[in-house]
Amino acid sequence: MTTLRFILGDQLDRQVAALRDLDPETDVVFGCEVMEEATYVRHHQQKIAFLFSAMRHFFDGLSEEGVRVDYRQYGKHESFTEALKSAVKKHKATRVVVTEPGEWRVLEAMREWQDALGVDVEIRDDDRFFADHAMFRKFAEGRKELRMEFFYRQLRKSTGILMDDGEPAGDKWNYDHDNRKKLPKNAELPEVPAFEPDKTTKDVLALVDRHFGNHFGTLDSFAWPVTRADALKALDDFIDVRLPAFGDYQDAMATGEPFLNHSLLSPLINCGLLRPREVCARAEAAWREGAAPLNAVEGFVRQILGWREFIRGVYWLKMPSYKKSNALKAKRKLPDFYWTGETDMLCMAEAIGQTRDHAYAHHIQRLMVTGNFALLAGIKPEEIEEWYLIVYADAYEWVELPNVHGMATFADGGVFASKPYAASGSYIDRMSNYCRSCHFDVKQKTGDEACPFNYLYWNFLIENEDTLRDNARMGMIYRTLDKMNGERRADISRSSKAFLKTIA
Ligand code: FAD
Ligand code: DLZ
Ligand code: SF4
């Protein structure tokens, strides 16, 4: 009577539900590197290398513990289903235990396994999250609008994180207003630790180079932690070094500086090497010990306890129909420079170049640079979504899709964003030093020299007037547009048409 416990690449946690009642005498823990997962989109080379190496280390760790493991390296199997079939046969398994996956696509396949394999298949809830599906459904019930802030407050209360006697620590729920500083001119930025590839990672890097060398991205700067021990070191380093100023520079951007005070923990949390509960607990402890200010700690905790949980809730509440909407009827092809980084827009070149080199860009780059451009230029939802799913080491559909389809591009028509996050060049100028060295002039509104974000912003408002004018939060901006004379509008349209032609 063998139970096969199947662990997916983003479930690398010794406490994951599928391993909970593991019997090392009779059970086999199974994992596999498969073609379908590595190629259903053409993932960034570092994303594949990071995950394969983390998987290999995780299974080695189980083996060292004395657990029976069956781990299949890349090359033999096409898909999860095919690999699992052969493992069930090999181990004469009578039962399969899995943890629910992070993508609808995989859940659909999982639901077929019981019939396809002819053995019992138990799909367990993924309780690495603070909130389960029922909790989010209950929160969403009867609400016209889904707002992160309310779900976040509910979770603060139910978990007690950053709460004192039932009240929010410091008597305020949200310190966002303190968290919008531009980086000072000669700021000394903390180093982010680089983790030297070991033999396992070097083998994987060679494999990825061989099989996926034509995917987006480079492997040269691979420095991700791939074991739980190193992930904990990365967490320690963030808490000690970068968390204290995390809040201040959370929204800042700077030329040549991909990381600033960000944590770089999302790939580690999403694949299971770190637990959201321990990450939030460490941040809260830093504040209680006086090692980090409340604006930084609350700002950081809100990203994980608030945004991360809320985004997952939206995904599972709204899928599978969620990804089909195209509220702004966006139809432009994704420009090539999203792959090459070759554009005169310095903010875009920086965000894309860093993404190519590190499979990473921080939130404001994703939202207000590459996301904002896609929104203003009207890039087809499925093309920009696939780009985000490919290029980041932390990207799985449950978290990528609502962030892109909902937050960045408003393709969902406002399921949880009260208005599109559209901005002109002046926002980017306010939050960065990019514009100083850019080919374009952020002060000019139209014409060949003008910053494209400036005219594309107004062009976006004009073109989407039918859909957006009645939005209460857009009233003021449409009143400004109403005051624009015909000549100005014609300039905007002319500049936008000319620019959009160059990126076709
Ligand atoms: P930090 O700035 O240090 O934030 C701390 C943590 O908060 C992150 O590690 C992450 O776990 C969590 N977090 C912050 N914002 C969000 C958010 N909006 N949604 C979910 N978790 C959040 N995040 C992903 O994990 N995977 C994605 O595929 C992804 N795609 C995105 C696409 C777009 C268009 C946008 C606007 C955001 C996306 N995000 C995604 C959210 C966010 O940008 C990343 O989590 C963050 O940049 C990761 O870097 P970090 O670990 O240094 O984050
Ligand atoms: C992203 C990814 C890749 C590239 N390769 C694998 C793999 O070979 N084996 C595996 O178990 N998981 C992989 N993953 C992560 C899966 O895509 C992820 O588990 C599902 O999308 C469900 O979230
Ligand atoms: Fe980006 Fe415009 Fe600034 Fe250039 S001028 S960096 S395109 S916002």
The H/E string reads EEHHEHEHEHHEEHHHHHHHHHHHHHHH
What's the β-strand tally? 7
- Output the radius of gyration: 23 Å
Q: Output mean pLDDT.
A: 96
Low-confidence sequence ranges: none
What would you say this structure looks like, in words?
With 504 residues, the protein is mainly alpha-helical. The chain has 21 helices and seven strands. It has helices at 35-39, 45-64, 80-91, 104-117, 133-140, 148-159, 199-212, 228-242, 266-271, 276-288, 294-318, 337-340, 346-358, 363-377, 381-391, 397-408, 425-431, 452-463, 465-468, 475-482, 486-502; strands at 2-6, 28-32, 69-72, 93-99, 120-124, 163-164, 167-168. Strands 3-2-1-4-5 form a five-stranded parallel sheet, sandwiched between helices. A two-stranded antiparallel sheet has the order 6-7. Strand 6 (163-164) and strand 7 (167-168) form a beta hairpin. The protein is globular and about 80 Å long.
